[in-house]
């Protein structure tokens, strides 16, 4: 289908005048989160609650593309494809960036956006810009770590968990860095601040003033939604009079979003006329589709020294042999592709997932959990094994020999010699 040529003014969250004319769809492809907010309970399977963090199903990137196609057929007024959870999009970088890439290629006229807590934002601003993501929302609840420490139970950076003011301070540092980088790229930025009575209500205006100094485009004071089984479940929702007063005061610094509907992670339709419940069956149907399009991924990548055995860990492979199945049912090597240079953390594995994007699997002697997650979020299954390449290829293409692949979760941490000791970290 032909996509309308939308411009940035057709985003109903950033432009109130577009609210009744254009809609949005949130694609729920990001289940993991890297912070724990004291007001958040990400209970997935609930069709009767309208709040951030809730979705009926979580989709893979290819499932999300199929869902996007069906949604546009049913609701042609959709102008925006966004990712807002149910966790944090950038805590799921492989799935998020792959989804955005697929949507951009299939529907080049759609506005792309995402909402994030900002912890991982600085690392992915370039990626977002390269995909022409034009709108980003960052939730910033405090610019004082003492106040932030009362809102966040913990902040996880990689494998390290920080609590208290140290965690809140790290989060704030990344948020400010990320917002600054977004504005340098010309991306429109909205800042959401969750108003928690007794915690940050008198601090909101300071947040707005700071955000104005960074060039933020829009500010959104959101009343906290009291949610069961959270530390803040007994804090009353701030009343409309308080929210109106805060918006009026914050308006001295930034334009205000006054039409927010606190959208679900699978919201779809016009603001105020959400069709998530109506389209829940469509969402569930798409969630049963294959996780990835194997027809678009005819190859398998192999980490090998000599082209006969699978005998290299992911982190020590300087290149990957690319194999395919022949029409006669055999297997043949196609080419060799260089691996990304060691270092760079998750960016290294995102680059690798792009290099291997036409591969359905990669055969390795071992790998760490971080690269496994990034590759599999991008639709590339990582198999750990040792032995003849063709035996591994048979198992991938034919589903046989289930005992061939060995779970070697600990093998890479001590045995990977690649990258000067960096391995698969």
TrEMBL record:
Its cofactor is [4Fe-4S] cluster. GO terms for molecular function: 4 iron, 4 sulfur cluster binding; lyase activity; metal ion binding. Pathway: Cofactor biosynthesis; Fe-Mo cofactor biosynthesis. It comes from the Bacteria. Transmembrane segments: none annotated. Keywords: 4Fe-4S, Iron, Iron-sulfur, Lyase, Metal-binding, Nitrogen fixation, S-adenosyl-L-methionine. InterPro entries: Aldolase_TIM, Di-Nase_FeMo-co_biosynth, DiNase_FeMo-co_biosyn_sf, Elp3/MiaA/NifB-like_rSAM, Nase_CF_NifB, rSAM, rSAM_sf. Residues 19-264 form the Radical SAM core domain. NCBIfam families: nifB (TIGR01290). Belongs to the radical SAM superfamily. NifB family. Involved in the biosynthesis of the iron-molybdenum cofactor (FeMo-co or M-cluster) found in the dinitrogenase enzyme of the nitrogenase complex in nitrogen-fixing microorganisms. NifB catalyzes the crucial step of radical SAM-dependent carbide insertion that occurs concomitant with the insertion of a 9th sulfur and the rearrangement/coupling of two [4Fe-4S] clusters into a [8Fe-9S-C] cluster, the precursor to the M-cluster. This is FeMo cofactor biosynthesis protein NifB. It comes from Thermosulfuriphilus ammonigenes.
């Amino acid at each position: 289908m032909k996509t309308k040529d939308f411009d940035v003014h057709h985003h109903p969250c950033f432009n109130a005048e577009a609210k009744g004319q254009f809609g949005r769809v949130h694609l729920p492809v990001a289940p993991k989160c890297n912070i724990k907010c004291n007001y958040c309970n990400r209970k997935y399977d609930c069709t009767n609650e309208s709040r951030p963090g809730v979705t009926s199903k979580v989709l893979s990137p290819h499932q999300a593309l199929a869902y996007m196609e069906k949604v546009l057929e049913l609701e042609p007024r959709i102008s925006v494809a966004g990712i807002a959870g149910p966790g944090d999009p950038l805590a799921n970088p492989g799935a998020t960036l792959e989804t955005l890439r697929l949507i951009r290629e299939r529907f080049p006229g759609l506005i792309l956006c995402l909402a994030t807590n900002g912890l991982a934002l600085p690392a992915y601003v370039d990626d977002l810009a390269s995909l022409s993501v034009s709108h980003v929302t960052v939730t910033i609840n405090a610019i004082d770590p003492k106040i932030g420490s009362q809102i966040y139970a913990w902040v996880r950076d990689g494998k390290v968990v920080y609590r208290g003011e140290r965690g809140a301070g790290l989060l704030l540092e990344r948020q400010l860095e990320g917002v600054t980088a977004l504005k340098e790229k010309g991306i429109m930025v909205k800042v959401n601040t969750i108003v928690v009575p007794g915690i940050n209500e008198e601090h909101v205006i300071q947040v707005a003033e700071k955000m104005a100094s960074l060039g933020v485009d829009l500010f959104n004071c959101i009343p906290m939604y009291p949610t069961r089984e959270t530390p803040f479940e007994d804090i009353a929702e701030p009343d409309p009079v308080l929210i109106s007063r805060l918006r009026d005061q914050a308006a001295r610094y930034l334009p205000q979003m006054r039409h927010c509907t606190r959208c679900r992670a699978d919201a779809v339709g016009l603001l105020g006329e959400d069709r998530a419940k109506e389209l829940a069956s469509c969402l569930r149907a798409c969630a049963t589709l294959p996780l990835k399009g194997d027809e678009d991924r005819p190859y398998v990548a192999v980490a090998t020294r000599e082209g006969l055995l699978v005998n290299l860990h992911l982190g020590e492979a300087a290149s990957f042999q690319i194999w395919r199945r022949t029409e006669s049912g055999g297997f043949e090597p196609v080419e060799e592709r260089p691996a990304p240079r060691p270092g760079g953390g998750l960016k290294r594995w995102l680059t690798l997932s792009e290099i291997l994007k036409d591969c359905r699997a990669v055969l390795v002697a071992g790998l760490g959990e971080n690269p496994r997650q990034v590759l599999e979020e991008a639709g590339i299954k990582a198999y750990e094994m040792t032995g003849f390449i063709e035996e591994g290829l048979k198992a991938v293409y034919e589903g046989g020999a289930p005992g061939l692949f060995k779970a070697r979760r600990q093998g890479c941490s001590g045995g990977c010699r690649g990258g000067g000791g960096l391995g698969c970290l």
